[in-house]
């Protein structure tokens, strides 16, 4: 607003221009020998006076507080023209399923060092891929990773499809991964929902319906919130918010960009959300595992069949894993007669059951193994041994693996 004084022949009125585009004049009051014009010129309203939408609040927070991750293009890099690599995005999203960021980082670096492009991964021997994946868990992911890479190389000339529908048609890619890659790598307006996003959405809207039945409602809310501009950053921002602020326990609500809008915060009970159905007790399966060692420190190994649990991975000889508590848990089920000594019991929890393996060890001369091979203990780290088998071997041979996951 500006004031202007003008000479006049006779007294007039105070005149004010209120139109933001034109000088429409209103009369207000007499002033005497001078006429004072008060004009409001066209200018935007201060942005602080305009309430930000939820996506705008989140993206503003993300621009300042995003996590630095090896597979991610930061907001600053994106503004400078940087683009996400679909191969890196896809690889990271597959690895991150049911697995923490910290656990994934070294595996992500290892895979990129071994196979920098999707065509390199497609051409790699399957056993090498399984060996590189060993220890990350959920091994069907590794098998599907290889199949997907082969499909991209053979059917798409090494270029990932850029839509949810095209991505979902690839082997091993479901709703979540297709949405995440479409949004993050190709900036498609896709509704991306992982566990972190479920927690944020359930609290933001105080969704009382328990999971997993409430997932369709949550996904609809995410779809409504996802903006046309920067949908990939929005998806990553939601994940970051759930991972760093809207945590399962003791969420940092005071730092949350959704604080003023969050219904769970308004109820003073954010930790109640998301509501989950009562967990069923996991069934128990039992079995026996046999660690045979030669005087030279070689261990008898074999490969599991390709299909089923831990398919294609390496193991020591074991019995079948049965739900019968009187199942094969004694040396009577060993691969060959020997002086098998009990070492203890290993417990390992899978997604759908708990496994208890009785571990036995024997020292024996090296013999021909029809369905396996003898591997030096010093080379075990290079084998495609799942965590449960590493636990078994460590039970029989202490310090066979210096570092084991919990």
Count of beta strands: 10
The share of residues in helices is 25-40%
CATH topology of the largest domain: Endonuclease III, domain 1
Low-confidence segments: 1-48
Could you say how many structural domains there are in total?
A: 3
Class from secondary-structure proportions: alpha+beta
Assess the beta-strand content as a share of residues: 15-25%
What series of H and E elements makes up the topology? EEEEHHHHHHHHHHHHHEEEEEEH
Instruction: State the major sheet.
Output: 4 strands, mixed
Mean pLDDT: 88
Sheet with the most strands: spatial strand order = 1-4-2-3
Q: What is the CATH homologous superfamily assignment of the largest domain?
A: Hypothetical protein, domain 2
CA(first)-CA(last) distance: 67 Å
Shape: globular
Q: Helical region count?
A: 14
Assign the CATH architecture of the largest domain. Orthogonal Bundle
* CATH class descriptor of the largest domain: Mainly Alpha
Radius of gyration: 31 Å
């Amino acid at each position: 607003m500006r004031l202007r004084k003008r000479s006049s022949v006779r007294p007039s009125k105070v005149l004010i221009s209120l139109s933001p585009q034109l000088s429409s004049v209103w009369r207000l009051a007499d002033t005497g020998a001078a006429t004072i014009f008060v004009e409001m010129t066209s200018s935007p309203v201060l942005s602080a006076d305009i309430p930000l939408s939820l996506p705008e609040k989140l993206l503003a927070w993300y621009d300042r507080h995003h996590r630095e991750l090896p597979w991610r293009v930061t907001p600053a890099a994106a503004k400078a023209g940087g683009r996400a690599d679909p191969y890196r995005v896809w690889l990271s999203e597959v690895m991150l399923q049911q697995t923490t960021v910290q656990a994934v980082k070294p595996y992500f670096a290892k895979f990129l060092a071994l196979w920098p492009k999707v065509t390199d991964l497609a051409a790699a021997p399957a056993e090498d891929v399984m060996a590189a994946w060993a220890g990350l868990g959920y091994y069907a992911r590794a098998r599907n990773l290889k199949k997907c890479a082969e499909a991209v190389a053979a059917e798409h000339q090494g270029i990932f499809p850029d839509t949810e529908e095209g991505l979902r048609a690839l082997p091993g890619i479901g709703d979540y991964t297709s949405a995440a890659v479409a949004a993050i790598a190709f900036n498609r307006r896709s509704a991306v929902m992982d566990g972190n996003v479920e927690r944020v959405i359930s609290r933001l809207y105080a969704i009382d319906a328990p999971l997993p039945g409430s997932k369709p409602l949550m996904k609809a809310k995410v779809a409504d919130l996802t903006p046309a501009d920067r949908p990939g950053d929005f998806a990553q921002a939601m994940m970051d918010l759930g991972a760093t602020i809207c945590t399962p326990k003791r969420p940092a609500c005071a730092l949350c960009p959704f604080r003023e809008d969050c219904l769970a915060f308004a109820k003073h009970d954010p930790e109640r959300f998301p509501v989950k159905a009562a967990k069923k007790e996991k069934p128990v399966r039992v079995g026996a595992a046999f660690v045979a060692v030669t005087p030279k420190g070689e261990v008898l190994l074999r490969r599991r069949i390709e299909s089923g649990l831990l398919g294609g991975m390496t193991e020591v000889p074991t019995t079948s894993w049965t739900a019968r508590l009187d199942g094969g848990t004694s040396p009577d089920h060993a691969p060959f007669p020997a002086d098998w000594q009990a070492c203890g019991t290993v417990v390992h929890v899978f997604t759908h059951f708990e496994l208890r393996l009785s571990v036995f060890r024997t020292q024996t001369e090296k013999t021909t193994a029809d369905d396996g091979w003898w591997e030096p203990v010093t080379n075990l780290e290079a084998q495609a041994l799942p965590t449960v088998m590493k636990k078994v071997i460590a039970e029989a041979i202490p310090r066979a693996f210096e570092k084991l996951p919990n």
